Amino acid sequence: MDVQLQELIDKIKKDGVASAETSAQKIIAEAEKKAAAIISEAQEKADGIIKNAKAETERMEKASEDAITQAGRNLIISFRDGINRELSALVNAKTEAALDKDALKKIVPEAVKAWAANPNASDITVLLSAKDLSAVEADISASLKNEIAKGLEIKSDASLSSGFRIGTKDGSAFYDFSAEEVAGLFSAYLNPRTTALMQNAAKDIQ
């Protein structure tokens, strides 16, 4: 009887230990699985943070480069436009100075006579600024007395600062030799040329 009881006790202990070991292994396996999942998730989050940080860094670098490029472009454009304005102003001033009363005394009669030589020319009008008209009217009238007798009119025009316009009285046809128009013709060539020079100069900037 004692022997059987001991065997029973031993069997219970053995089964209990085996069961405990199995449970322990199961717990350990589950813990290891959870730990691996946590590590994997943490790694994914870390990778994501690094990826986002890298992307943001690259975005900021590109934004900075674009900003510097745009600032440089704006500077060049501003400088170019400033040069063009200065050159245009210089051309305007020089053109206006060139169309002084001595020049007008020669140019206006020649232009009128060339216009009047056209068989279809009639009702011709010459327009000058008020200050130029007062300065050259007597000389021009003397040079164009035949044309004046045929109906030529010489008048002032408040829109003119220098130079002159010649055309028909109804304004259907005219030539504009005002300082602004002549200077504009020069500037139309000058400004694109200046722009091209500026662009070529910009290419050499390191």
Present the secondary structure layout:
Blueprint: H1 2-98, H2 101-116, E1 124-128, H3 130-143, H4 145-149, E2 153-156, E3 163-168, E4 174-178, H5 179-203
Helix pairs in contact: 1-5, 2-3
Mean pLDDT: 77
Widest sheet, order of strands? 2-1-3-4
Radius of gyration: 48 Å
From the spread of the alpha carbons, the general shape counts as rod-shaped
Secondary structural class:
alpha+beta
Task: Tell me roughly what share of residues is in helical segments.
Answer: over 70%
Let me know the number of strands.
4
Instruction: Please give the alpha-carbon distance between the first and last residues.
Output: 106 Å
Number of helices: 5
The profile of the biggest β sheet is: 4 strands, mixed
Strand content: 5-15%
Reading the helices and strands in chain order gives HHEHHEEEH
| Contiguous uncertain segments of 5+ residues | none
Short characterization:
With 206 residues, this protein is α+β, with helices and mostly antiparallel strands. It is built from five helices and four strands.
What tags apply to this protein structure?
206 residues; alpha+beta; four-stranded mixed sheet; 10% strand; rod-shaped
Description:
This protein is of the alpha+beta class and 206 residues long. The protein is built from five helices and four strands; from the N terminus they run ααβααβββα. A four-stranded mixed beta sheet has the order 2-1-3-4. Strand 3 and strand 4 form a beta hairpin. Helix 1 (2-98) runs antiparallel to helix 5 and helix 2 packs across helix 3 (130-143). The model has no long low-confidence stretch (mean pLDDT 77).
